[in-house]
Write a structure and sequence with these properties.
Elements: H1 2-17, H2 19-22, E1 43-46, E2 49-62, E3 67-77, E4 79-82, E5 85-88, H3 108-144, H4 146-161, H5 164-173, H6 181-211, H7 215-222, H8 227-234, H9 239-262, H10 274-280, H11 295-325
Antiparallel strand pairs: 1-2, 2-3, 4-5
Helix pairs in contact: 1-3, 1-11, 3-4, 3-6, 3-8, 3-9, 4-6, 5-6, 6-9, 9-10, 9-11, 10-11
Length: 329
């Protein structure tokens, strides 16, 4: 299961990285008469026999009911590696909509893969910032002790008791409602690192404080090493904890980004993110009228499930190592 989950994560990261080549259309380009268009199906066979992969052109039948039918009068073959796109069709036959279209007629598949870059980027960088800040402060607290340890632990406890989601929303609300995508990206990354570091710091502090009492730490101090040199010898003991914490932080930060974008404080406008795409499918009628609008929720579920599977497997391995190395009575 762990290998399958890791393969799924690698595939999603590859798709997000190669979004400009994988997406058949620009993510912010609306197409006329394609509002809530359903996904297009790939065909290999028709009344004339077998053919190379092709699709049929979509035709709008009823604008009010948003009814589309396939035009079977002519096949539209798929074109590979044309104009820098992995798969496309003749522009005169209309857009290629693998996952359908949203309310403005924009390609949902293109917005989904481009949105993965922003949502996953914010979560990964926010987790990295939380690990760096938490590991540094936790190592300082655990190796120093005394008042500095008390101060860092008190600040960490204060941040932990705050309602994180509301805290992020309040901090985000201090900025203008409409900001550039780049500013929104780095602002959310900094906010996520700020609210996520206490858990990391508490765990690292406990590990470093325990390691400080061991013989090798006393030997390092006896050789005349300073506080920072001793800390660099103690911090590697927390590597396993930091690795698992990194995997656990990403799902939480993905949910936080989705929440911010859903309420309008994240990426907005034509900039796609998974949270912003979820807002398009918030209507109850989307469950049966346009279920493809819920694909961002499915993507979030798959990523979180894969990350939790990987983290659970790593935690199980770590626990088994501890059990086998523990002294027996």
């Amino acid at each position: 299961m762990r290998r399958a989950a890791a393969a799924v994560l690698c595939a999603i990261l590859l798709v997000a990285t190669a979004a400009p080549w994988i997406a058949s259309n620009p993510p912010d380009l609306p197409f006329g008469d394609r509002a809530f268009a359903p996904p297009m199906r790939v065909h290999l066979h028709d009344t004339d026999g077998w053919h190379a992969p092709f699709v049929y052109r979509q035709r709008l039948v009823n604008r009010i009911d948003r009814t589309y039918v396939e035009d079977h009068t002519a096949r539209v073959p798929l074109r590979w590696w044309t104009n820098g796109r992995l798969v496309s069709i003749d522009p005169g036959a209309g857009p290629l909509l693998w996952c359908g279209a949203d309310a403005l007629g924009r390609d949902l598949c293109a917005r989904l893969v481009y949105g993965a870059r922003l949502s996953l980027g914010v979560a990964v960088l926010g987790a990295c910032g939380a690990l760096l800040l938490g590991a540094l402060l936790g190592a300082v607290a655990g190796s120093s002790g005394g008042r500095l340890d008390t101060l860092i632990t008190t600040v960490a406890d204060f941040v932990l008791v705050l309602p994180i989601v509301y805290l992020v929303i309040v901090l985000r609300a201090t900025r203008p409602l409409v900001i550039s995508p780049a500013e929104a990206f780095w602002l959310m990354t900094i906010l996520f690192a700020f609210v996520a570091w206490p858990d990391v710091a508490r765990g690292v502090r406990s590990i470093v404080a325990t390691e400080r009492t061991r013989d090798y730490a006393a030997a390092v101090r006896a050789l005349g090493a300073g506080r920072w040199r001793v800390m660099t010898h103690l911090l590697p003991a927390a590597y396993g904890f930091l690795r698992i914490e990194f995997v656990l932080l990403i799902p939480a930060l993905l949910a936080a980004e989705s929440t911010l974008s859903f309420v309008g404080f994240g990426f907005g406008g034509a900039t796609p993110s998974w949270g912003g795409l979820l807002k398009d499918g918030e209507a109850l009628t989307a469950m049966y009228a346009a279920p493809w609008l819920l694909l961002p929720a499915a993507a979030l579920f798959v990523v979180v499930l894969a990350l939790q599977t990987v983290a659970g497997a790593r935690a199980g391995v770590a626990g088994s190592v501890v059990d086998t190395t523990a002294p027996r009575r």
